[in-house]
Amino acid sequence: MVSIIKSVYKNKTIETIDFLEYIQLVFTDYTLRTITLGTALLGSICGMLGSFAVLRKQSLLGDAISHAALPGIAIAFLISGAKSSDTLLIGALASGLIGTVWIKGITSKTHLKSDTALGLVLSLFFGFGMLLLTFIQKQPNANQAGLDKYLFGQAATLVERDVWLMAIVTGVSLCVLLLFWKEFKILLFDEDYAKTLGFNTKRIDMLITSFIVVAIVLGLQTVGVVLMSAMLLAPAAAARQWTNSLGKMVVIASFFGAASGIIGTGISATQNQLSTGPVIVIIASIFVLFSFIFAPSRGLLFRQLRFIKNRRDLELHKTLAFMYHIANTHEDITHPHTIKILNNFQGFTRKTLQKLVDKNYVALDGQMWSLTKEGFDTASNLYNQLNKTNE
Amino acid sequence: MKPIAVKVDDLTVAYNYKPVLWDIDLEIPEGVLMAIVGPNGAGKSTLIKSILGILKPIAGSVSIYGKSYEDQRSLVAYVPQKGSVDWDFPTTALDVVMMGTYGSLGWIKRPKQKEKKAALEALEKVGMLSFKNRQISQLSGGQQQRIFLARALVQNASIYFMDEPFQGVDATTEIAIINILKELRKANKTVIVVHHDLQTVPEYFDWVTFLNVKKIATGPVKDIFNDDNLTKTYGINYQVSIQE
């Protein structure tokens, strides 16, 4: 994983000229423009719908559905004998939907948990699909080559019609999302409660799941069966780190998805040997990694920094409170005391004393310290607040 | 004589072969504050969920003011157990309370200014107005419980079903919640609460139902909250009765 990321970065820096050339090409070259638009649209619709899958804790549903689509592709080819992507995608859609229904059926009718149902359907359908693929390969038919592109995807085969189809699906799902926003939100947050309000939660669930299935099937040609679920999950997981609002999360996820598509296509176009699907997925994963570390409120880095800062503040406050107690015993609050007394206080260091001086809470005079008026007020405020929360 | 707010007839619910609720008959008069008590696994939550149509009973029927629940949905509000949802969900306190208005809005229509105002009022009633824009994961357990309560208050219902609203809340919140429940009763609303703390039953409630798969007893607290019923509900023999 690390080495792949490194190589991607290396390519980015060394091949700068190529990359610039590529950007020009996107605007002038028809094929490249089509592919870039296609992967961008795919990324954005996947990010959008993936947010719902992630929040419903059905992240793996996408994985199962995409694997379940494989036998559909093979059967569609066997029946039609042709390799037109439309026919194959209809086959994929059909078997993807059948897989979904099975998963839902297994979880509701038996006592198996959803992860078991997902695993069962995924491996069963994928195994059957692989079986059919090898069977097809043995057939004396010149057409059969290239079916395996659905395993890992091949963005280069995108044509204008595919992009139009993606654009239409993106538009429709955006409309449906806006229309049923409130229903989706309540289903995600509290399904039982939604039921008591009179919403048919099964219908809402079916609506959102069918859009997820359609998005997955659309992505099979580009990203492939194996990696498709990453397209769905990675942008959403990354977006979750940046916001606490569902609306913003969906927008950010779809932006991350589109950006992964564009950057991934760019890198793979400037590097002949890299296939597009995996590169897109890796770019999306880089987004995830970056978000996990650098997101302002949920990211690991800032969380750790906040933690350290809070601890330091607390140490200062404790020292100040201790000084306040000593100063309180005298009528004159700024009465000086020796620093030695403070040594009895656990957690006291010269550094904390210096910090208090910097903040103008404490005045130092040789081996003596005294609270300033400001320090005394701050300390007594602290003390009052503590009392309040204790009440 | 007060009208009957909730009537349950012959309700039986089972997961697999084992009945969770067995032949429950229940009449809850309007305007009472009723506790449902019983040991773990007695079917208290299941009873509420079946009345609300979340779970499908094997047999039996439920009526709200004499009509089927589906027709009377707008009269009923529900406070689920706090632990039943993911509090890391990306949304704010106000937004959760607004969900209480979704039922009266129906499909597709969005909450407007009027709904927002109602939600803010409910937040104020539970003392959470200053937390309205807080991400829900940053609320304490007691505050989350109050948000759920506010969400039900927004529904402006006549009958309130609450599943363990006192679970995991501190004394201050408990008092705040019980005061709101008593206010609801004053306004002639019916409140049905799954409750665990037997000690507080006489103090908080005026009506009680003892449940342990079967209904043991139901009635005014002063008449039936006694050792006899407590032993029948919690006593060592309680498992035997249904497995004959």
CATH class of the largest domain in chain A: Mainly Alpha
- Going across the biggest sheet of chain A, name each strand in turn: 1-3-2
Mean pLDDT of chain B: 90
Give the strand content of chain B.
25-35%
Largest sheet: number of strands, sense, barrel closure of chain B? 6 strands, mixed
- Give, in spatial order, the strands making up the sheet with the most strands of chain B: 6-7-8-3-9-10
Give the count of helical stretches of chain A.
17
The strand count of chain B comes to 10
Distance between the termini of chain B: 39 Å
Q: What CATH architecture label of the largest domain in chain A applies?
A: Orthogonal Bundle
Order of helices and strands of chain A: HHHHHHHHHHHHHHHEHEEH
Domain count of chain A: 2
Our measurement of the CA-to-CA distance between the termini of chain A, rounded to an integer number of angstroms, reads 54 Å
Please state the overall shape of chain A, judged from the principal axes of the Cα atoms: elongated
The main pleated sheet of chain A reads as: 3 strands, antiparallel
Oligomeric state of this protein = heterodimer
| CATH topology grouping of the largest domain in chain A | ABC transporter involved in vitamin B12 uptake, BtuC
- Strand-residue proportion of chain A: under 5%
Summed up:
The complex is a heterodimer of chains A (391) and B (244). Chain A has 391 residues and is an all-alpha fold. Chain A has 17 helices and 3 strands.
Write a structural description.
- The complex is a heterodimer of chains A (391) and B (244).
- Chain A has two domains: 2-298, ABC transporter involved in vitamin B12 uptake, BtuC; 309-390, Winged helix-like DNA-binding domain superfamily/Winged helix DNA-binding domain (Arc Repressor Mutant, subunit A, Orthogonal Bundle), CATH 1.10.10.10.
- Helices cover 76% and strands 3% of the residues of chain A.
- Chain A has helices spanning 2-14, 16-28, 30-55, 59-80, 85-109, 114-137, 149-152, 160-179, 181-189, 191-196, 201-223, 228-240, 246-270, 276-294, 300-328, 350-358, 373-390; strands at residues 337-338, 362-365, 368-371.
- In chain A, strands 1-3-2 form a three-stranded antiparallel β-sheet.
- In chain A, helix 12 packs across helix 13.
- Chain A is elongated.
- The relative contact order of chain A is 0.12.
- Chain B has 244 residues and is of the alpha/beta class.
- Chain B is built from nine helices and ten strands.
- In chain B, the strands form two sheets. A six-stranded mixed β-sheet of chain B has the order 6-7-8-3-9-10, sandwiched between helices. Chain B has a four-stranded antiparallel β-sheet with strand order 2-1-4-5, covered by helices on one side.
- The radius of gyration of chain B is 18 Å and the shape is globular.
- Chain A binds chain B through residues 55, 57, 179-183, 185-186, 188-190, 192-199, 240, 243-246, 248-249, and chain B through 49, 52-54, 70, 73, 76, 78, 80, 84-86, 89-92, 96, 99, 102-103, 105-108, 110-111, 135, 137, 151.
